[in-house]
Amino acid sequence: MPAPSEAPETRRQILRRHLGPHRTVEGERTSGLSLTGRTVAITGANAGVGKAIAERFAIAGASLVLNGKPERKVQLEELAHTLNSFGVGVEVVTGEIQLPETGVAIARVGRDLFGGLDTLVNNAGITADRPFSGETDRAREKMMITFRGVVEVNLIGTFNTTLGVIEDIRKAPRGRRRIANITSISRRHGNAYQSAYVATKAGIDGLTKAWAIEFAQDGVAVNSAALGPIRTKIWRTAEFAYRRQQTDEQKKLGVDPLLPIAQKMPLLGGQRFITPEEAAHTVLYLISDLALPVTGQILEVEAGVTHLRLG
């Protein structure tokens, strides 16, 4: 059954979040960050960072193929309808990215409706926090089920989607052929209880490095945006853990349980997380003309945080 969705935002609200009160769509589309004439596929586009990337790219003028799980179809279609108001074509392709046919379907829709993809953003991913325990057969079994599930979506999903669309990207006009992989600073710093997540994000950065070398001869640039703490659904488990550690007084005063994480990001004043919109700006740079010679790079978006633990 489709998940319930919130009321979709208006065009004005989206512009306000991404551009502030003074910048305009017209200005964005005449800058080096313009995506006019581009066709981009984005996985995991129904919420969080993926949704912000879709919004930012529509503002910049790109045609979009938005992917998400089948149960997210309602959210994706509402988002597509809103982004149409920016004068761009938007199509939805639902499907699990760990299945090879999903990447093939994304490429086919991009080709049939927009003349072919030139860019892919591998954003979709999951986490499943679990203490590393092998005390019993059942504990070991649960650990392996968790690990395989995260690997299937994050690593194999990224591999399958790229495999499904790469030939179309290779045929796109030179200078537009881009792949951006969304990873995490945890792949370098590590996180307790997130063996699977950390391993898969490190693995995706490995794919970035390998593909950048292999695809360069075809004019395809491949980079990663390794994101720091962004307050999306993926942080709910940590929020519950930190709430348990709060004093009664802190709870009574309504102190944000994740304030200790925000305090580790001095660039943002130690009071807030990185926003999905800020992450989207970085990804826009990586696929824009401004990053034409950039490939094989892991660009960390981390606001000054140098070490992060959930314990």
Q: How is this structure best summarized?
A:
With 311 residues, the chain is an alpha/beta fold. 46% of the residues lie in helices and 12% in strands. It folds into 2 domains: 11-230 and 275-301, NAD(P)-binding Rossmann-like Domain (Rossmann fold, 3-Layer(aba) Sandwich), CATH 3.40.50; 233-273, no CATH class.
Derived from helix and strand composition plus strand pairing, the structural class reads: alpha/beta
Helix content: 40-55%
Number of structural units classed as domains: 2
Kindly identify the CATH topology of the largest domain: Rossmann fold
Taking all Cα atoms into account, the compactness measure Rg is 19 Å
Count the beta strands: 7
Query: Overall mean pLDDT score?
Result: 90
**Could you say which overall geometry the principal axes of the C-alpha atoms support?**
globular
Q: Cα distance, first to last residue? A: 36 Å
Can you describe what's shown?
This protein folds into 2 domains: 11-230 and 275-301, Rossmann fold (3-Layer(aba) Sandwich), CATH 3.40.50; 233-273, no CATH class. Helices cover 46% and strands 12% of the residues. The protein has helices spanning 11-19, 25-28, 48-59, 73-83, 100-114, 137-171, 186-189, 195-215, 236-245, 248-253, 259-262, 276-287; strands spanning 39-42, 63-68, 90-94, 119-122, 178-184, 221-227, 298-301. α3 (48-59) packs across α12 and α6 (137-171) runs parallel beside α8 (195-215). Mean pLDDT is 90; it is low at 307-311.
